Amino acid sequence: MERSNNADTFDKSPAYKMKKLLLLLFLIPGFHISFAQEPITVFRNPRDSTANLYQLVLPKGQIKGMFVLTYLPFSHPMVSMAAEKGIVLMMGIPSSNYLDIMVEDYPLQLLDEMIAEVTVKYNIPKNKVIVGGLSAAGSLAIRYAQYGEQGKNHSGIKVAGVMAVDPPLDYERFWRECKKKVELNFSSVAVAEGKMVLSLLESKYGGTPYQKLSNYHTGSPFSYSARKGGNAVFLDKTPVRIYHEPDVNWWLENRRLDYYGMNSIDCAALINQLMIDGNKDAELISTNNKGFREDGSRHPHSWSIVDETELINWCSSLFNR
């Protein structure tokens, strides 16, 4: 998973990310000039500046839809491109616990409330919302799309599309990967993540996949060992695109992990299942040598693999249907 877009795993909390973003937006002279309008930050709990919050950038003209990206601030080029196409950009942070967003329901509920607030206030149609995220935040985005299709949300939002960047999706497979990471004890980053994820999954689902497999099937966005991919069925009619960079040599060298240890196996399997089920809007976007962290270091599990221009064009095409 390795969620941070920097060198270390879990080294930058959502609170840190938000503080960094606000510093850039409001303290650096002229930084906001390229925005169509001033960014709007909403703390839904005045006593908490770390979670249950969102930030918006509105286009000046007619609004055609909204793209919600969880836990990642938008780049200047993306803001400019979205403004030209009448797209509202929203960054949502429902929880300060980055692991909870993989398995708990309350982040889905809070994200749904935030999206509902914005769609009502700015008169955005409930079927003109696209959600997305990187890593575990991508898992959250997939889960939110399924959440609406299951009729569990209170907003009535049915997403126009969902995108995710290298998300863990099959938690049975993810548990096995994390177990192996800890046993290998090769990378301190991988070991720390592995221990946290093992604790999370076993606590949430009441044991290991060997003991409580049905619980893992119920909770996972996708399950290879479940009939028709488990919860994948709730994406059969939704446009889905997943980005990944399957650089197995990087994972072998830096983490001693093979294909079974990469999220790519989940990503490809989900898209394949959707294609088998007849979803003509299911896409797997594979890149090569585009994954780099903010400090310039090589890492295939990074937002940099996304072509932001093409992504905004994809959003626009869905809003224009």
Task: Describe it.
The structure is a single chain. This protein has an eight-stranded mixed sheet with strand order 1-2-4-3-5-6-7-8, with helices on both faces. It has helices at residues 14-27, 76-84, 100-103, 106-121, 136-149, 171-184, 188-205, 209-219, 248-255, 264-276, 308-319, and strands at residues 40-43, 53-57, 65-70, 87-93, 129-134, 161-165, 240-244, 282-286. The chain has 321 residues and is of the alpha/beta class. α2 packs parallel to α11 and α4 crosses α5.
SSE inventory with pairings:
Elements: H1 14-27, E1 40-43, E2 53-57, E3 65-70, H2 76-84, E4 87-93, H3 100-103, H4 106-121, E5 129-134, H5 136-149, E6 161-165, H6 171-184, H7 188-205, H8 209-219, E7 240-244, H9 248-255, H10 264-276, E8 282-286, H11 308-319
Helix pairs in contact: 2-11, 4-5, 6-7
Strands, total number = 8
Poorly predicted runs are 4-34
Strand portion, in percent?
Answer: 5-15%
Oligomeric state of shown chains: single chain
Helix fraction, binned, reads 40-55%
Order of helices and strands: HEEEHEHHEHEHHHEHHEH
Shape, principal axes of CA atoms = globular
The main sheet comes to: 8 strands, mixed
CATH architecture: 3-Layer(aba) Sandwich
CATH class label: Alpha Beta
The whole-angstrom Rg is 19 Å
What is the total number of structural domains? 1
Determine the number of helices (DSSP H or I, runs of at least 4 residues).
11
Q: What's the short story on this structure?
A:
This protein has 321 residues and is α/β, with parallel strands linked by helices. It has eleven helices and eight strands. The protein has helices at 14-27, 76-84, 100-103, 106-121, 136-149, 171-184, 188-205, 209-219, 248-255, 264-276, 308-319, and strands at residues 40-43, 53-57, 65-70, 87-93, 129-134, 161-165, 240-244, 282-286.
